[in-house]
Amino acid sequence: MMSIFVLLPLLAFVISLILPDNGENHFSRLAFAAVSLQLLGITGYTIYWIFEGMVPVNIAELELYNNGSYQFLLDFYFDSLSAVYLWVGAFVTFLITRYSRFYMHMEEGYKRFFNTLLFFFLAYNLTVLAGNFETLFLGWEMLGISSFLLIAFYRDRYLPVRNAVKVFSIYRIGDIGIILAMWASHHLWHENITFIKLLDTALVSDQLASHEGIGLFIAISLGIAAAAKSAQLPFSSWLPRAMEGPTPSSAIFYGSLSVHFGVFLLLRTFPFWEHQLAARIFIGLLGLGTAIIAYPIARVQSTIKTQIAYASIAQIGIMFVEVALGLQALAMIHFAGNAFLRTYQLLVSPSVVAYLIRDQFYHFKPREVTLEDTFPKRLELSLYVLSLKEWHLDKMLNSLVFNPAKRLGRKLDFLTPKNLSLYFLPLYGVGLIAYFHQERIPAPILGFLPGFFGLMALMMVFKAFSERKYPRLAWMLVMAHHFWMALAVSFNESFDYSQTMIYLSGVVAAGIVGYWAIDRLRKHEPAYFDLNQYYGHVYEYPKLALLLLLTTLGVMGFPISPTFVGVDLLFSHIHADQYVLASIQAVSFIFGGIALVRIYARLFLGPHVKNYHPTAQKSS
Questions:
Q1: Which residues does 61 contact at the CB level (< 8 Å), separation at least 6?
Q2: Pair 315, 337: CB distance under 8 Å
Q3: In the chain, what are the domain boundaries?
Q4: What is 70-97 written as a DSSP string?
């Protein structure tokens, strides 16, 4: 049954891709039927599981790779947390699928919307049923890309596309936390630990007693990943920006389901960090601070979607506090209630706005005295202005994360195609020679080489991230960073050639095809071919846009390519004391993905640059 909960959305998604575009009913009926069957199946299985004694079920479903010392396993796990999230997710998706059949009627991207909706539902079920970090990260990445596609649904408008890239970038920044947590857990357990083993209190306590530092590092990394996914401080500003998508996608993604995955991650890993007081204080204060700041922001917003977004952020902050206090059952009840409430609010928001406008016109009454009026006037006005400016959270994130990366990238302008060929390609050759003759290199120099080659990879990524003139150069730099990173990790121990090939095979295949697609666009549109603005070439080259999207996913290590397994395999070879190398690998992997998505978005999405195409309003 657990396999069916993943296979049914997968089958519906694949069928929706091959259905012809000549009618709306095909897609909506397929999606509605699949979600209805899923809801019935989950309801029946959950009732059966409750009567059987509610014993947690763990199934090692599919082994994707095993070399003796490392195993990449798809593992499914069902317990009370899975039951709650699966049923709430299926019920909310059922409602929104029904609603979307009529709400999206006559929209140009009707098929694309239901394709993405089914893809999100597949990712949601896969993440909830994940029995280990590898399976969870598989669904986690799929949620990120489906989020990007749904926010950018109105791809002929500037703000939806810009905000989609913004949200995807913050998602990827948060992914650094879960990647580093996966890496550290490999060295803590010396295996791909399953979540059901974390229920063994004696096992966890004994392991943490001798590795307290690694345990705290994993807990804080998970807290950062959860904060980014659930729009907690300092990542709260992305959630209102994500509301540029259609109202149904706002309801299912940012009101009810996807935004609660930070809470899910904390609940799923709670048996691991429940005895770490510092981690519980960190997560509790994070949630409390978010709730205190998000509440006044919600009070002063002028748009109903933004009000709902910040109200939801505040409630999720309270859920973080509940999880930190060990109130797991209360947190799950709170999740279900908040998901249902936000779904309802978002779906009726257009009608409510129309009603309130009429009601205010005919029945206006001055507001009564509120809590804020009891504050000193200067404090009240200060809070009001800060809340209007959303406490400068967006500006702070840009100044602390994205702007420094751009400034650093602009100082690397010497990374031109000519210099790459003259200097960096021979340097890579020297690195390969050094790798094959490690016995002749002094030990201090040999220990220095992994970090040096890792910095080379990081340089390539930051230059690609800041590049605004040459799309092909940015693409080549992201490809090159994978090769440098593979070389850096290879010096740690004897790397099997097959492992290197697994990592690089997806990069090479997708990279060559993607470079061809970019070059072909350059030949067709030489006057509109850089990364300074959004050009909207998807209108005239839809097949080329789809090809570049798929190759972008392949180069960034998305689950459609073997590079996804290779990334985890690469991390398993980074030693437990190499925090700097692990951080370099995580940061380069994350910013490389952001750079690739920016290339795709700026070339193919947004208002079309040619004036004979209709130009939509900036915002939806």
A1: 2, 3, 73, 74, 75, 76
A2: no
A3: 2-359, 411-604
A4: -EEEEEEEESHHHHHHHHHHHHHHHHHH
pLDDT higher than 80, residue 151:
yes
Tokens 């009627």 locate to: 105
Q: What angle do CA 398, 232, 160 make, to 5 degrees?
A: 55
Query: What's CA 594's distance to the chain center, in Å?
Result: 11
How far apart, in whole angstroms, are the C-alpha atoms of residue 343 and residue 94?
12
Residues 6+ apart with CB under 8 A from 394: 237
Per DSSP, helices labelled H in 274-424 are: 277-300, 304-324, 328-362, 377-388, 393-397, 403-410, 417-419
- Angle CA 619–158–531, to nearest 5: 165
Q: Give how far Cα 52 sits from Cα of 45, 46, 48, Å.
A: 10, 10, 6
Tell me the sheet residues that pair with 73. 63
pLDDT, tens digit (0-9, with 9 covering 90-100), for 519-575: 999 998 888 888 888 888 888 888 999 999 999 988 888 877 778 777 777 777 777
User: Which tokens sit at 371?
Assistant: 């809590």
Secondary-structure breakdown of the chain: helix, strand, coil percentages, each rounded to the nearest 5? 75, 5, 20
Question: In the beta sheet, which residues pair with residue 76?
Answer: 59, 130
pLDDT digits (tens, 9 = 90+) for 362-404: 777 777 777 677 778 888 888 888 888 888 888 888 888 888 8
Structure token digits, residue 403: 């702007």
Annotate 412-451 with DSSP letters as a single string: TTT--HHHIIIIIHHHHHHHHHHHHTGGGS-HHHHHHHHH
For residues 244 and 147, the answer to whether their CB atoms sit within 8 Å is no
Query: What distance in Å separates the CA atoms of residue 27 and residue 323, rounded to the nearest whole number?
Result: 39
| Cβ atoms of 557 and 144 closer than 8 Å | no
Q: What is the torsion angle, in degrees rounded to the nearest 10, for the CA atoms of residue 338, residue 172, residue 236 and residue 618?
A: -100
Rounded CA-CA distance 169/203 in Å is 37
Nearest CA to 482 among 498, 466, 506, 463? 506
* Stated pTM of the model: 0.90
Longest dimension (CA), the chain: 88
Residue appearing with tokens 């059949």 = 101
Whether 290 contacts 314, CB under 8 Å:
yes
Q: What is the dihedral of CA 36, 38, 40, 45, to 10 degrees?
A: 180
DSSP code at position 369: P
SS3 category, 415:
coil
Nearest to 176 by CA among 592, 607, 530, 587: 587
- Specify the DSSP class assigned to residue 440: G
Sign of the CA dihedral running 180, 184, 189, 195: negative
The Cα 484–Cα 439 span in angstroms is 21
Q: Mean pLDDT, to the nearest integer, of 256-274? A: 88
Q: Tokens at residue 302, please?
A: 């002028």
d(CA 30, CA 101): 11
Q: Report which residue type is found at 296.
A: P
